[in-house]
């Protein structure tokens, strides 16, 4: 039996987004990225934006607004993937680390899409 979702903290996608943001914070403390304040801050902002927009959308009064914020969160997942490519190309990330984080971001993006579809189907 599925647990009833009563607050955004109950959402699997929000929980995974927070875990992902934590990983991004840890990886941006490594040599290279740590001193590249522009890229480091962009990566952190993008990662935190995912969980923040999921939470903000959940707290809105309409499904339409919720879907809009989920769409923004999905965009942030794409943004961090692009930034991960840049960090890898510059040499700040090992290829294996890049692949691991990229896959997590893709999983989050897909999970957000699935959640959006379930909300849209509930409306129809």
What does this structure look like?
The protein is mainly α. The protein has a domain at 34-118: de novo design (two linked rop proteins). The chain has four helices and no strands. α1 (12-27) packs antiparallel against α2 (37-59) and α1 runs antiparallel to α4 (95-123). The chain is elongated and about 45 Å long. The two termini are 24 Å apart.
Would you summarize the structure shown here?
This protein is 77% helix and 0% strand. It has helices at residues 12-27, 37-59, 63-90, 95-123.
Task: From the structure above, extract its key features.
single chain; 124 residues; mainly alpha; de novo design (two linked rop proteins); 0% strand; elongated
CATH architecture of the domain at 34-118: Up-down Bundle
Q: What order do the helices and strands follow?
A: HHHH
Low-confidence stretches: none
Oligomer state equals single chain
Rounded to the nearest angstrom, the distance between the terminal CA atoms is 24 Å
CATH third-tier fold name of the domain at 34-118: de novo design (two linked rop proteins)
Blueprint (SSEs and pairs):
Elements: H1 12-27, H2 37-59, H3 63-90, H4 95-123
Helix pairs in contact: 1-2, 1-4, 2-3, 3-4
């Amino acid at each position: 039996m599925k647990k009833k979702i009563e607050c955004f903290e109950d959402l699997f996608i929000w929980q995974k987004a927070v875990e992902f943001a934590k990983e991004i914070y840890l990886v941006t403390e490594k040599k290279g990225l740590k001193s590249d304040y522009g890229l480091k801050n962009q990566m952190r902002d993008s990662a935190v934006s995912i969980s923040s927009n999921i939470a903000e959308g959940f707290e809105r009064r309409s499904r339409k607004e919720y879907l809009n914020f989920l769409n923004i969160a999905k965009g942030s997942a794409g943004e961090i993937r692009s930034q991960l490519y840049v960090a890898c190309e510059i040499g700040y990330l090992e290829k294996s680390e890049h692949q691991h984080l990229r896959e997590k971001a893709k999983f989050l993006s897909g999970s957000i899409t699935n959640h959006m579809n379930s909300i849209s189907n509930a409306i129809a």
